[in-house]
Amino acid sequence: MKNKNRTPLELYIHIPFCVQKCQYCDFLSGPSDQETRDRYIKALRAEIQAVQGVEAYEIVSVFIGGGTPSVLKAEAIASIMETIQKKFCFSPDAEITIESNPGTVDLAKLNAYRETGINRLSLGLQSTDSKELRMLGRIHTYEEFLQSYQWAREAGFQNINIDLMFAIPGQTGEAWRAHLRQVAELKPEHISAYSLIIEEGTPFAECELDLPDEDTEYQMYEDTAGILAEYGYQQYEISNYAKDGYACRHNIGYWKRTEYLGLGLGASSLYGENRFSNTRDMQEYLGFSGNTERIRKDVLKLSLKDQIEEFMYLGLRMTEGISEIDFEQNFGQKLENIYGSVLQKYKETGFLEKTGTNWRFTRKGIHVSNHILAELLLDEE
Ligand code: SF4
Q1: Residue 373, CB half-sphere, CA atoms under 13 Å: how many?
Q2: What is the structure's pLDDT at 377?
């Protein structure tokens, strides 16, 4: 039951620590010592306590992400949970997710998460092939993942996501299909499957990698949806698949532009009418987290044009697409008056389709979605 008098708000809590850096990763994360972790938790709690204007909101979801939140001791996660529970009003059915990696969890830690009210676990697996895992720089084997997954079920997690990655160097289409089936057989409620992107500044960007060619990657993506459908997973976003009723509410809220507040180093927010991101400088964060004005950077009050563009490019990521009715309700103007010609153009080329009052990408369109989304940027008035 949602409280009708309060505005829904999502919380994102960033834990920027990992055991070691993976070869492909450009997230704000890395190894750390215990003293830094302790100081960070203290700073994070100070930031949470200092947030203003929370009376108007009700928390509908929390996502504790990273990094690897599970590198922290269970007591640290419990103290963060206690601080947010004291500070904010929670919806009784709030979805509360923590990201964890095999090699950093055990049964006691997972039991402790459940006791704090965390009800969804996202496990970073990436590959079922331990050789691929080593090459990616992951700290765990497939067998360690299986043990973590079993512990998670034992601890009572009934909503588990598994993160997978395809188009890994040296990977064939056949190998990917086999990995996918292996994971689907475990029956997690949710699977995220992303293709490897080589990001600048990562060790992989410096290497000569034997990456699958474009056609193979295209086929891997198509096979993902096909194989997961056989196991009862529905694709609800470009890279996300879920059993009925288990689509990630936190992510859907983000794509539908529910307000969210990011807490912690580098975390981004859409709070009130503003978008902003916290400082990415650890020393500044540790020193000034209790002064939210000081740590919030790039504060941008969204114009109507910004809001319309966001509505389009976030909403079109979802397989249900965007609704003409929602557009009109949000912006007081008809979708076709603003985007009629571009939507029509891509409908004729078979990249977009209209189902009822919704516009969405076709399968063919998903593969060129970045190019099409770029055309949805509006001219300055
Ligand atoms: S565990 Fe995740 S966040 Fe940490 S380095 Fe690897 S990919 Fe990046």
Answers
A1: 19
A2: 84
29 touches ligand 1 (CB under 6 Å) = yes
Is 101's C-beta closer than 6 angstroms to any atom of ligand 1? yes
The DSSP code sequence of 32-53 is --HHHHHHHHHHHHHHHHH---
Check pocket membership of 66 for ligand 1, CB cut-off 6 A: yes
Is it the case that residue 77 has pLDDT exceeding 80?
A: yes
Ligand 1 atom nearest the C-alpha of 18 is 4
Q: Which pLDDT band holds residue 225 (cuts at 50, 70, 90)? A: very high
* Cα-to-centroid distance, 29 and ligand 1 (Å): 7
Mean pLDDT confidence for 13-41: 97
Q: Is 173 in the pocket of ligand 1 (CB under 6 A)?
A: no
Distance (angstroms) between ligand 1 centre and the Cα of 381 equals 41
Cβ of 224 less than 6 Å from ligand 1 = no
Instruction: Give the pLDDT confidence of 42-57 residue by residue, as tens digits.
Output: 999 999 999 999 999 9
pLDDT at 381: 54
Domains and CATH numbers, the chain: 7-254 (3.20.20.70), 304-374 (1.10.10.10)
- Dump pLDDT digits (tens) for 171-196: 999 999 999 999 999 999 999 999 99
Burial 107-129 (b: 16+ CB within 10 A, else e): eebbebbeebebbbbbbbbbbbb
Centre of ligand 1 from the C-alpha of residue 149, in Å: 18
Q: Which of 17, 28, 68 to mutate to test the pocket of ligand 1 (most atoms within 8 A of CB)?
A: 68
Structure tokens at 293: 């004005």
- SS3 state at 163: strand
Task: Find the distance separating the first CA and the last CA of the chain, reported in whole Å.
Answer: 41
Instruction: Give pLDDT, residue 106.
Output: 98
Cβ contacts of residue 220 below 8 Å, gap of 6+? 166, 167, 173, 176, 195, 212
Centre of ligand 1 to C-alpha 357, Å, is 40
Q: What percent of the chain has pLDDT over 90?
A: 96
**d(CA 331, ligand 1 centre) in Å:** 38
HSE-CB for 33 with a 13 A CA cutoff: 1
Pocket lining: 126 vs ligand 1, CB cutoff 6 Å: no
User: pLDDT tens digits, residue range 137-154?
Assistant: 999 999 999 999 999 999
